[in-house]
Input
Amino acid sequence: MKSTILLTAALLLIAAFPFPSVAGESPPERGATSYAPVAGTESFSSVMKRMVAEKPDILRRHRDLLEERYDLSDRTQGGITMTSGKPLQVGTRVRLPQGMTWKKLSGMSPAEIREAGVWPAGFYPLPHPNHAEGGMLFPQKQIDAILEQTGRDLSRFDLDFVMPDRFLPAFPPPIYLTTRPDLGDVSQGQLVTSDNYYELFNGILNPKQLDGLRLLVSPFPQQQFNATHDRRSVRPSLGVTCFDCHANGHTNGATHLVGDIRPQEYRHRLDTPSLRGVNIQRLFGSQRALKTVEDFTEFEQRAAYFDGDPVIATKKGVNILERGSEVHNMAEFEEILDFPPAPKLDVFGRLDRSLATRAELRGEKLFFGKAKCSSCHSGAYYTDNLMHNLRAERFFEPKMINGRYATADGPIKTFSLRGIKDSPPYMHDGRLLTLEDTVEFFNLVLQLDLSHQEKTDLVEFMRAL
Output
């Protein structure tokens, strides 16, 4: 009887979250079920022992994938920094197939690139470090700071964060408020947590905003961090906070999988987007089905924290936020998070010609002309608040990559480009490490035929935003 129960549980687990397919093999178009098994039968100690043993091979495969795709060397250029002063990684990092050049590639049609199999590896969708498992995964700096300040441990026994810190946002990022621009960085160089939020913000925020910030730095149960045996932390956990990913209302590059796609191989990796300027955004959630930041705040706690599975959420201790006060208060604080200063922009979001360089001005002309960037990234905040389907799958045959089925992405939200230099890596899944990579990607996808100088000028302009 016991063996029958164990077999049934194992089959349900495989159906809900199947293991990676063999290279070259297509995953099933649909899973056997949308639900994960609720009543696990394998002991926590057994799960942990097995996953710890598997961890070195999983991390090696992901590191090998990154090395195959990208030049991960430390390459900066004097004076080119994020708003905080952290040196910005420069140059195109996506590796090209042997014998290929960007100029040659841009002269080929989508069908020719697909037939020749020369779509750059770094332009394929990027998988989660362990795509079959997924879940929230935090950079080491975030883990260390939270442990020191609050005693909470965001380490996972089954995975480590692999992307080098040089390609991540500055930590901790500065905080700018629409209500108090005179104060500059109100974080005073600190990571805002439950330990210091009151000291830092009392007397600057109103009572509702201050309570909303309290909730944004309060831990609540989540799929990988909870008090049950079905977790990925060594000890039972209080959970995670909104600001564990959206550090200081910005982002630390933490990664996850979207909860709204099944089966597992089709789920998109999602790198945490910034909350700066969320007040001008009109679409939220990985598929942008939510229309207000209040909707998104409530959805995160009820569903996104638990892979979009309300049954598992109930099991692990879902936190039901009260819409009229808690959700409202959290949103009221989020809505005053501002973009970083952009001293070269005028009140309309365009370059002040008396302050801009010639390269930046040339880049602006391209942005609003030949490069077609403003077709989506329009207005003073460089977003049309819509979604667009780039149809990058025109350029490659679908294939399995470390458990992720690289195929069509579907419509993607137009993110604001204000302060974009502060938010690497780029695209929704972090597949593009630098702004130069991003320009090369769109030059191919939109078939723009930009020259090397035009690409350089575009990057110069975006760094000024």
About this structure: DSSP finds 14 helices and six strands in the chain. The longest helix spans residues 44-69. Confidence is low (pLDDT under 50) at residues 1-23.
